[in-house]
């Protein structure tokens, strides 16, 4: 009989924690898990899922306009923000119940409380003490905002999902995933959107053609893109907010949403006291099996800040459980992780950007195509799709694919298998296209771009 209450105790019931708990329990471990908020974590409760629902909602504005080119005559469209939020909340409640059921069916004991370390094997969970042979930290992250005067008047994505009304004028600060996604959501739903970004092109880290095309397309859709702009402070007005910018100019809006990055949830866990190695940024240091510097304590997901994406956290959690409880050795590779930005138009990307490929591989071939998608021949919308393949000249392996345009995330998810598997340009060339699709472009690109 074990001297511990549990074989495994998981801190945090988000994507990574829940997957690890269920798989470990399936391998026969006695598992407990604690969660102070709602089970499901950032992705399900206040991230990917509700965001994507709002993205769908926002896209209807364009769909109605585009329908005219196809012979539809629609009356004036009316939109209700409260109805959308209520519908979205119902779906999130449903998913929350699914997660609760999954845990219970797996035999995992849930504690609806915050947990923290008493020592390396004991945790305080709410007002109880539990002990575990192994502990998994999967506490995720939360939005970070800069410390400027008046920042208390700003919201983050957490609050954006629960606004009582759609802001008439909204400033979105940041140029990353969340800022680009929310400026598209607010713009599509009818707000006047100002996107303020300190750099000279959105989506730093992405391929330069992606950044160029997203900037141009977002601007065409009506988002007022204010590049090389920073907010010095925020003042509350009788009606709305005033942003004072770096050059003394001011901008009046009804809401300001900061999307300036996220940081790991490590405060109050007692990590330093038990000697877990944590970087200055809060990120827990782990090896490729998600093990910390303490042998029986592991960490997965955003709290380790490796690649902060839900499927990565799930993969890390699953691999941890299989490795420790399933007798398999499953280290996690973070190479060629595909990702998407659900901006409008969206981005799908896997592998190296052109810039990074030149650094890592030296000689590369770049194939690029920019075209008006077939849907917009009749809709008349002036929106471009951009597709790009990066090929290592020596091995001829395709090492990067970047798409901006309709269905980009869906297309890249499929092609990511080819890139992850190391397929060559010749494999792409001998694959038949499906006509007429946009994705066929990727198997019909014949000549590298001459720079
Ligand atoms: P990102 O790191 O993507 O972007 C942060 C943005 O804020 C950058 O544009 C950054 O500028 C800017 N910024 C940082 N500090 C300041 C500051 N002090 N003043 C002004 N601007 C600042 O973070 P997000 O919050 O957008 O998203 C967090 C993470 O969540 C992402 O990295 C991603 O891993 C994940 N995510 C994934 C999604 C998806 O898969 N579709 C969707 C949403 C989130 P600069 O570029 O100059 O540093």
Task: Give a short synopsis of this structure.
This protein has 451 residues and is α/β, with parallel strands linked by helices. Helices cover 32% and strands 23% of the residues. The protein is built from 13 helices and 21 strands.
Describe the structure.
With 451 residues, the chain is an alpha/beta fold. It is built from 13 helices and 21 strands. It has helices spanning 15-26, 41-46, 48-68, 81-105, 157-160, 177-189, 208-220, 271-274, 310-325, 354-361, 375-379, 408-420, 425-429; strands spanning 6-11, 31-34, 109-111, 115-117, 122-125, 128-137, 141-143, 169-173, 192-196, 224-226, 231-236, 241-245, 250-253, 255-258, 262-264, 297-299, 339-341, 347-351, 364-371, 385-392, 398-404. The strands form five sheets. Strands 1, 2, 3, 4, 5, 6 and 16 form a seven-stranded mixed beta sheet that branches. The chain is globular. Bound molecules: NADPH dihydro-nicotinamide-adenine-dinucleotide phosphate (NDP). The site of NADPH dihydro-nicotinamide-adenine-dinucleotide phosphate (NDP) has 24 residues, from helix 6 and strand 17.
Supply the helix-strand structural class: alpha/beta
Oligomeric status of the shown chains? single chain
Low-confidence stretches: none
**Helix share, percent:** 25-40%
Number of helices: 13
Write down the overall mean pLDDT: 97
Write down how many β-strands occur, each being a DSSP E stretch of 2 or more residues.
Answer: 21
Q: What would you call the shape? A: globular
Radius of gyration, Cα only, in angstroms? 24 Å
Determine the N-to-C terminus distance.
69 Å
Most strands sheet: 7 strands, mixed
Ligand kinds: NADPH dihydro-nicotinamide-adenine-dinucleotide phosphate
Could you tell me the strand content as a percent range? 15-25%
């Amino acid at each position: 009989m074990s001297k511990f209450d549990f074989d495994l105790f998981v801190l945090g019931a988000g994507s990574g924690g829940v997957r690890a708990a269920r798989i470990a329990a399936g391998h026969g471990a006695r598992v407990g898990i604690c969660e102070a908020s709602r089970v499901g974590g950032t992705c399900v409760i206040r991230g990917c899922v509700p965001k994507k629902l709002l993205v769908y909602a926002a896209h209807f504005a364009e769909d109605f306009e585009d329908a005219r080119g196809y012979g539809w005559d629609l009356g004036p469209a009316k939109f209700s923000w409260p109805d959308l939020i209520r519908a979205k909340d119902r779906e999130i409640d449903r998913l929350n119940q699914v997660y609760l059921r999954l845990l219970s069916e797996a035999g995992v004991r849930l504690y609806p409380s915050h947990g923290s370390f008493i020592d390396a094997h004991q945790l305080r969970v709410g007002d109880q003490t539990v002990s575990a042979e192994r502990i998994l930290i999967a506490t995720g992250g939360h939005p970070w905002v800069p410390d400027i005067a008046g920042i208390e008047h700003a919201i983050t994505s957490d609050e954006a999902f629960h606004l009582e009304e759609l802001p008439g004028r909204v400033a979105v600060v940041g140029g990353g995933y969340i800022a680009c996604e929310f400026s598209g959501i607010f713009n599509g739903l009818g707000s006047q959107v100002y996107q303020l970004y300190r750099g000279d092109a959105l989506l730093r880290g992405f391929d330069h053609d992606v950044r160029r095309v997203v900037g141009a397309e977002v601007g065409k859709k009506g988002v007022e893109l204010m590049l090389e702009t920073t907010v010095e402070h925020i003042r509350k007005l009788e009606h709305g907010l005033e942003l004072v910018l770096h050059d003394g100019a001011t901008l009046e809006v009804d809401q300001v949403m900061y999307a300036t990055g996220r940081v790991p949830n490590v405060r109050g866990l007692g990590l330093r006291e038990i000697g877990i190695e944590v970087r200055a940024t809060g990120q827990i240091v782990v090896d490729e099996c998600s093990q910390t510097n303490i042998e029986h304590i592991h960490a997965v997901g955003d709290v380790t800040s490796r690649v902060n994406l839900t499927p990565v956290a799930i993969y890390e959690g699953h691999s941890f459980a299989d490795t420790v409880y399933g007798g398999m050795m499953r280290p996690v590779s973070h190479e060629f992780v595909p990702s998407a930005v659900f901006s409008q138009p969206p981005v799908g990307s896997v592998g190296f950007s052109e810039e990074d490929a030149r650094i890592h591989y030296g000689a590369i071939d770049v194939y690029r195509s920019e075209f008006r998608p077939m849907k917009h021949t009749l809709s008349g919308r002036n929106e471009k799709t951009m597709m790009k393949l990066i090929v290592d000249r020596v091995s001829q392996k395709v090492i990067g694919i970047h798409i901006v345009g309709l269905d980009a995330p869906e297309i890249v998810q499929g092609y990511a298998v080819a890139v992850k598997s190391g397929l060559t340009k010749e494999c792409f060339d001998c694959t038949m296209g499906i006509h007429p699709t946009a994705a066929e472009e990727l198997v019909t690109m014949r000549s590298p771009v001459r720079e």
